[in-house]
Every structure is written in structure tokens, then in C-alpha cells.
Amino acid sequence: EVQLVQSGAEVKKPGESLKISCKGSGYSFTSYWIGWVRQMPGKGLEWMGIIYPGDSDTRYSPSFQGQVTISADKSISTAYLQWSSLKASDTAMYYCARSFITTDPFDYWGQGTLVTVSS
Amino acid sequence: QSVLTQPPSASGTPGQRVTISCSGSSSNIGSNTVNWYQQLPGTAPKLLIYSNNQRPSGVPDRFSGSKSGTSASLAISGLQSEDEADYYCAAWDDSLNVWVFGGGTKLTVL
After folding, report:
1. In the 8-state DSSP scheme, what is residue A32?
2. pLDDT tens digits, residue range A69-95?
3. Chain A environment of B43 (Cβ under 8 Å)
4. Which of A32, A47, B57, B92 is least enclosed by beta carbons within 10 angstroms?
5. CA distance linking residue A44 with residue A78, whole number of Å
6. What is the pLDDT of residues B32-63, one digit of tens each?
7. A82: β partners
């Protein structure tokens, strides 16, 4: 069974760093792209970027380039989304999801990680 | 402001047929296929329709999709209470090189 399991909710202060994770199982982790999608409170879905764990090829949405870093460790089938300095506006639910190629739909999603940034 | 435009809300009574529209441009819907996601309250999105009108395994045939030009639509027939959710359309945008989503449509089953 394909599963993407994300790390738990986080509460951080502005300026702090954070790295959340997404562990894949039940499929060949290095053969699919893993993307990240933001959903701000009460809002819609926004595509942030995507990584191919097989060779770490990474693409970012211009809206998120320089704001976050996407990485992966194929040895433990885990993808990451990280911030070096959080802002209150980063408060959102973050989902990871799988696709076969970058222009394919996301067929499996993680359960989401809620990030709250507040002083 | 979302790149793809959806009505913010839709509603219907059990058994009815409802449709949700999604409008885009030549760089997204006009040149690529459309996918639809269903997000039940408090859960992650789920792929509902891909490649304009294809249903993943397990999705009831009450759900159907279509596309014409730079617009697409999702139809739900035989509406059920468990269909109450947010629905999002999505397409790859060749100009922006990103996936773009609609703002979402909240479906209420009256």
C-alpha cells in the first residue's frame, strides 16, 4: 500500500528554522517525484515545488524560490521541506504528494503537517 | 487570486446533479489536461478526476469531468451527503512552469 507519512504539527516563533518530513513507503521512492503544496488557513492549494529523489532534481515555484528548500534522502525514503527563518505568514498546512512525472497529477498525498508561527 | 477561476460555492439536494466550473487560459487549461481534487473536511486532498475525464480506481462513476477550450467542469450526479467537500481544479501552466489550482468550490448538500 502506497503511503506518505508526514511529521507532526509544529509551533515555532518568527525567525526560527524548521524542517518537516514526508516518508514514502509501499512503492519505489526513487521512481516518483515528491511535491509540496501549501494551504493557508481557510484558503486554497498552492504548488510550492517538487523533487525527484532518484537524483535530487528539484524545481520550485517562483513564488516560493528562495523562501524554502526542498530536499530528499533516498536512503530513508524521506523528502523534506525546510525554512531558515520562519515568518508568521508561513502559518499553514503543508502537504506532500507523489507524481510520476512533474506534469502528472498527484495521485497519493500525505496527511499534512500544520505549521504555526507565532510570537 | 487564483490562476484558475472556480465559483466559491455550489449546492444541491440529495440525488441531484451539480456541476462545478473551472476557467483558465491558453497556457494552462487550453494546452494541458485538467485534474480535480476532492478535499473532505479536515483531510488531505484526494485525486478525483485526472486527464480531464478519467477516474482513478475507487472513484464512483457519479463523478465525471469534461474540458472544452480553456474551461473545464466537474459533474456530480446522484448527489450524496458524503460528497460535501471542497473541490479544486488544477492544470500545469506552460508559461509559469508550475501547477496552478482553482480557488476551490465548497459543495454543500442541502
Report:
1. S
2. 999 999 999 999 999 999 999 999 999
3. 111
4. B57
5. 25
6. 999 999 999 999 999 999 999 999 999 999 99
7. A19, A69
